[in-house]
Specification:
This protein is α/β, with parallel strands linked by helices. The structure holds S-adenosylmethionine. The site of S-adenosylmethionine has 23 residues, from helix 1 and helix 6.
């Protein structure tokens, strides 16, 4: 995929706690370099979820964000172990039986399985992700736990092939901040939705725009911080794509766990939100 424009990242030490946002070498990376880093991070999330990360994962996090025990008890435990979402948008999504739903950046599949239980046999759910280890994990779990009607597709959330105007709902949890082409992502979502279709997502945004000189720390980008966009700019992209935001909630229950991530969070007011938008065009 062609690089649209270069962006600045901080090259950091590989160990988590030694990373700081200031005083490091600045280098330009292209999109494929960033992609490699993101894939590496989320391969670890799939294969070794009990390891050390900037962010929390698993059942305790999911319960704190708002997932119900009934929702979690009805999906494979391994998908919950690798859950790396940042919010709970299923209440606002209000999924109805028979609906067609797509999860962007489906990870180990937890949200796809929850959505599948809600749409029932007449509905259909797809997950898209670019990290092979996540796709392998979610597909194996689907096979071994009787989720026969779900499909996990390898692709980029910016531009994978999907029938325009075919979806009732697009969901996504902790993913769009990782994209360097957010405008394209929202336009693609709008294109795939039916008229009146909904987008229910949780994501990381900032209160203050990250300064150009420190647009991101490569490791913090992959950890859902460095790529976060200022919240008004983020909502403008959604309106520009032809969707109207009807619910916007700050998730106070979500916080990053490493010291470097906490530092960036305080300085730039990095926070988690959940939101619902409706396609108006
Ligand atoms: C923070 S994890 C969240 C996964 C899942 N939504 C969850 O709640 O556990 C981000 C996921 O998005 C995927 N991802 C990141 N950028 C992507 C892109 N541009 N296209 C497709 N998948 C992407 C990663 O591979 C990873 O599985």
């Amino acid at each position: 995929m062609p690089l649209q424009r270069p962006y600045i990242v901080f090259i950091t030490d590989a160990t988590m706690e030694n990373q700081t946002v200031s005083g490091q070498e600045i280098k330009q990376l292209d999109r494929s370099d960033l992609e490699t880093r993101v894939k590496k991070m989320y391969t670890r999330v799939a294969e070794a979820p009990s390891g050390k990360f900037h962010f929390e994962m698993g059942r305790k996090l999911a319960l704190r964000l708002g997932y119900t025990t009934a929702e979690l008890d009805a999906v494979p435990v391994e998908s919950i172990d690798s859950f790396a979402g940042v919010g709970y948008h299923f209440a606002m999504a209000n999924i109805k039986p028979g609906e067609k739903v797509l999860d962007l950046g489906s990870g180990a599949g937890m949200d796809v399985f929850i959505a599948t239980n809600k749409v029932g046999q007449r509905g259909r759910v797809w997950g898209v992700d670019m990290t092979k280890a996540q796709l392998q994990k979610s597909s194996n779990l689907a096979l071994h736990h009787g989720f026969h009607d779900v499909s996990f597709i390898e692709g980029q959330i910016e531009d994978f092939d999907f029938i325009p105007g075919s979806l009732d709902l697009v969901i996504s949890n902790g993913v769009i901040n990782l994209s360097s082409e957010k405008a394209q992502v929202f336009k693609h979502i709008s294109r795939m939705l039916k008229p009146g279709g909904r987008m229910a997502i949780s994501d990381i945004v900032t209160g203050v725009q990250l300064p150009h000189s420190i647009t991101c720390n490569s490791s913090l980008w992959a950890a859902c911080i460095g790529g976060a966009m200022q919240k008004d700019m983020y909502s403008d992209l959604i309106s520009d794509a032809g969707m109207e935001i009807t619910v916007w909630t700050k998730n106070e229950q979500y916080g990053f766990i490493s010291n470097s991530a906490k530092g960036a969070t305080e300085e730039y007011k990095v926070h988690s939100i959940s939101m619902l938008a409706v396609k108006t065009i």
